[in-house]
Design brief:
3 helices; 76% helix; rod-shaped
């Protein structure tokens, strides 16, 4: 039976991951997409708040033209950016987690197969 010490299993797992020699292109591409998603959420929320404040706080004076349609379009753009940014943030965060989870699952299945085979 194999050693059940958690630190030795962790070291073995780390060595196994390092030996895969998988090139992922750039270093940590999910981080860039997560940051972009967070920025899109922030910009979208700020645009929505600005457009809401501009529409609700403006009472047209005599002879003044209020561009309500422009502010409504700006608010819609802000909401769209916030939703797209949130989706991007969630997808990229889960992508990294599921990649690690899949490697761990494969490693555990190989270890179990080795135990059954008596290696």
């Amino acid at each position: 039976m194999s050693d059940t010490n958690p630190s030795s299993r962790l070291a073995e797992f780390q060595a196994e991951v390092d030996s895969l020699k998988v090139t992922g292109g750039r270093a940590n591409p999910e981080r860039t997409w997560v940051i972009l998603g967070a920025l899109l959420m922030i910009v979208g929320i700020v645009l929505t708040i600005i457009s809401y404040a501009s529409i609700s706080g403006s009472a047209p004076a005599k002879g003044q033209v209020v561009f309500v349609d422009d502010y409504a379009a700006l608010g819609t753009l802000g909401l769209t950016l916030a939703v797209v940014g949130a989706a991007l943030f969630i997808v990229m965060s889960l992508r990294r987690y599921f990649r690690f989870w899949l490697i761990r699952l494969i490693f555990e299945q190989r270890e179990q197969a080795d135990r059954i085979a008596g290696r």
